Amino acid sequence: RDNEKGIVYTVRAQKGKTEIFDGTETKTYGYNGAFLGPVLRLEKGDMVKIRTINELEENTTFHWHGLEVSADADGGPHNTLKPGEEKVIEFKVAQEASTLWFHPHPEGITAEQVYNGLAGLIYIEDDNSKNLGLPNDYGKNDIPLIFQDRNFDDKKQLNYNAAMNDDGTIGDTLLINGTLNPKLTVNKEKVRLRLLNGSNARNYTFKLNTGDSFVQISTDGGFLNEPVTLKEITLTPSERAEIVVDFSQLNTANDLALINEDESILLPFEVSDQSGEINKIPGEMNNFSITEEEKDLPVTKKVELFGMKDQVTINGKKFDPERIDFTQQQGVTEVWEIYNKPDMMGGMIHPFHIHGTQFKILSRDGEEPPENERGWKDSISIQPGERVKIAIQFKHKGVYMFHCHILEHEDNGMMGQLKVE
Ligand code: C2O
Ligand code: CU
Ligand code: CU
């Protein structure tokens, strides 16, 4: 970091080998390493330059999920880098503290590249986040957790095509930060867990095996105004949430773990005898609001999600890189209504994502969204039959994608393009 020149990163998409299982090497992809990627740390106001290099033997792109950047820097399918190519992107960080991520986005092969290991995190800090007094000791009481399910063949390799199910890859093996069966050792203190559902198609409902509650402090794109006490939280693919678990208040006589909806263990905890830092979770963390004006805006764009398997569409169409589906003026807030149209079988949840901006959920089926969704979002789960209204504005111009974040649905054309003018 150099305040004059800003901040410079080099991010290389690479092939490598990772010892996920003892004594066996699995072929993987990674950013600046064999598997997954580094945490890129940014601060609001930073001028950032990222040199992106494709060292793979296939096309890729570098997409910054949740980052408010110009379409040219966004890394959508139009920003393809061929093998050996590189590109420098520059942008100013103009959004608030949040946990974002990055992954590839080449047309038709996004799912397989993410499956093989291309994903990393982006942390944005700002004056607010630095002064809130939240746990922020990386790896100690501030832990990134990327949840991904994978299938391995009998040679312990990631075989994407063999792993494909009807609606994407649902794996029988959970990796957290690329690790098999990890255990998290924590002190008796408040610990901040930055959860990312980095899976291609699986949803997770996180809860503590003791039934104790925790607080959620952030959504995809920033802090909630107040911590929200929860017993469980569901994240669909690409959604993030920061939660704080207070290990000083939990009964550690029994084994503690984060479990899934079906009670299967996601992440066991080992609580040491040490009492850690005394962090307080402030009662007020942000000033997110939805204005009366925004509430009164008419719906100007309708998005209808439909289908399953490879029969998925948005507004009855599949992705066409030559077709612009919507246009919107830069800096103008519009209301979009997203509808998940059920089919004869009932339908399925589609996690809907929009590039290049953070938006506000105005309503779910006409009702106010739950408390823990009253904050900036870039991906939202939409239940079959549900109608969700969002208020959305773009700071930059260019062509952006919107799509289902079940990556196989995206690759199968459940994606459209918006031109911001
Ligand atoms: Cu995670 Cu098109 O994005
Ligand atoms: Cu994105
Ligand atoms: Cu979908």
Automatic annotation (TrEMBL):
Please provide the record's keywords in A-Z order: Metal-binding, Oxidoreductase
Instruction: Name all Plastocyanin-like domain ranges.
Output: 14-128, 159-249, 297-420
Assigned protein family: Belongs to the multicopper oxidase family.
- By what name is this protein known? FtsP/CotA-like multicopper oxidase with cupredoxin domain
Portion of the full-length sequence here: 79 to 499 of 499
